[in-house]
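Take the subject:
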Amino acid sequence: MKRLNVLGRIGIVSVMALAIMGMACAAGAKDEAMAATVASQDDSVAMADIDGLDKDTVKEGSNVLPKIEIIFKETTSEATEDVESDTITTDDAIIGDEDEVDENAVTDSKAEDVSDDVTAADEDMNEANTEAVDEEKTPVTGLAIAICDSYVNVRSIPSTDGKILGKIYKHGMADVIEEADGWYKMTSGEVTGYIKADYFVVGEEAQELVESLNARIAKVKASALRVRASQSTDAEVLALLSKGTSCVVLFEEDEWVKVKFGDVIGWVAKEYVDISLKLNNAISIEEEARQKEAARKAEEEKKNQIKTQAENLVQLSNAEMSEEEAALREKIVAFALQYVGNKYVYGGNSLTNGTDCSGFVKLIYQEFGYTITRRASTQYGDGTKINWQDARPGDLIFYGKNSITHVVMYIGNGKVVHASTPETGIIVSGLNYKNIYGATRIIK
């Protein structure tokens, strides 16, 4: 190993000697004898492959080695250390003795400068890569869902100084196009603009909110679709859904969808349903104004219809009553009818947010200054008992066989209004839809 190292150095020194010789000849500083000596040594070295010097090409006793040593001593003694230092990182040096490699480690200031430049370049590259990675993570696109208390304004520019183009109400959705300085550029429905990012969730959070809201809906597109107990066409059939039926999506697989329809939970073949999000889009300012005006007109029309309906019902009752009593009964019936369509809530005490049968009639009479009890069984004794066939609009009709189970308000012409069931809510029904227990008159 040491011999290989020495031979490597000899080859390097030979190259240096040739360079020095050229300089000497150009300046005329060397005599012909020295030039001849150098030339002869150059011929010797040239006959052997420097990179391939080994014990096969340089033998003990050869004339090559001594002559190179003479040149080394006479012409390059001062440059030896520098030459070795500059070439110590070649492959040949790497295969030399460890002690020699360590001792001849590069310490040249220029090498340090190069090393510093390389290090700085590496740092710049790492920083650039980091910025590139960060830039890839920063953009937000896709579904965004509003988590505000009421609504978020959609603006023309990413600033609160921008013109309000529309609104996205709580749990409304938008499709984010890009993100810019805390704002999302988005499109939702017919509105495109900017929304404040703080009031929306995106990515996994948006998907989790969709799941919690049961907002994914599967709509049957086949003429009929079986709901099965598991993901197999051999599984038990739990229900049969007709075309156009919508159900809540609980979970999706590649070929099957877990759905909920009423109290039935099962699996349907994914290829036979269309899955969508049941979330509201943004509404433009102009569209909202049109909707408000339409709602106002519809409400006004509804009140007029109810008033007319109540008048007709009272007149059709053919009951003998004063104009004052007739007018009061018309108002009571009209007031009750405006809550048709609202929810049934057992034990509830709100005409708008929900109530049950006895709560409904109690709240109606309360509006006109009458106080009655809360339970149907006791309400039967709150007024004057009458034959149900003599009932006038506003009187109470009770149902049941051996005991009272339900109460309604008679509105005339053989019809009643009542809080029916959780499934149907507040509705109008025919008088004889159940077994009549009796009737009571509260208005005197």
